[in-house]
Amino acid sequence: MVAVEVFFPDSGRLEIGDTLYPSARALNGHGDSVAAQVFWTSLDTGIVAVVDSATGETRSKAVGTGRLQARFGGLRSNPENVFVFARLDSARAAGATRDTVVVTPPDSLTKADSLSDSLIVKAWAGISGAPGRPVVYTAAIYPPGATTFKFVPKATVLTDANGIAVARFKFTAAPVPDSVVVSAAVKRPNGSDVPGSPVRFVVEFRP
Q1: What is the CA radius of gyration of the chain?
Q2: How far apart are CA 174 and CA 108, in angstroms?
Q3: How far apart are CA 127 and CA 89, in angstroms?
């Protein structure tokens, strides 16, 4: 054996109290995996604690970056980072949830007034805003048709230091829609929704 290759679900991102189940395999000189019992160790036990060294079951304990290492005999993997975040409690709108956009003339696609007001979402962890959390904006167009659109600055926005994410909706090709329902999803690292997610906004367009 010449190397130990490590795999983390959800890119090694956890919330406090979550459990990580990593995997690893031993590789020979040809890069092929071989049968081997791999054991796990935490290098930062205050942040992540290995509950079972044989399976790698690891519990997150505190916010921060912890490191796990896999070993087979005297062979060890590079320390791999596990990112632990505060547990999200909820998500909700931090501004108006309805907006009316007036487009004049109706076929103008370049005027600034074809851009919605800010669609603001706040992610909460306890009494504080949760930074660094992805908020994913999607849109349902009414009536359905050939309208194309984009979110400004983009469809996935990370919350700032105060737990705030901001995006704006802009249609980019006619026909002008009657209305758009925007959904802003805030999810845990394991992909589950937090209470209050998705946050919904309604944007109406008028000539």
Answers
A1: 23
A2: 9
A3: 9
Instruction: Report whether the peptide linkage leading into residue 105 is cis, meaning its omega lies within 30 degrees of zero.
Output: yes
pTM (global) more than 0.85:
no
Domain covering 90-206: architecture: Sandwich (2.60)
Buried (b) or exposed (e) across 130-141, using 16+ Cβ within 10 A?
bbebebbbebeb
Q: What class has domain 3-85? A: mainly beta
What's the Cα-to-Cα distance from 97 to each of 22, 93, 126, 159, rounded to whole Å? 40, 7, 23, 18
Two domains, one topology: 3-85 and 90-206: yes
Give the pLDDT confidence of 1-26 residue by residue, as tens digits.
Answer: 578 889 999 899 999 999 999 999 88
Is residue 71 predicted with pLDDT exceeding 80? yes
Domain boundaries, the chain: 3-85, 90-206
Amino acid 61 reads K
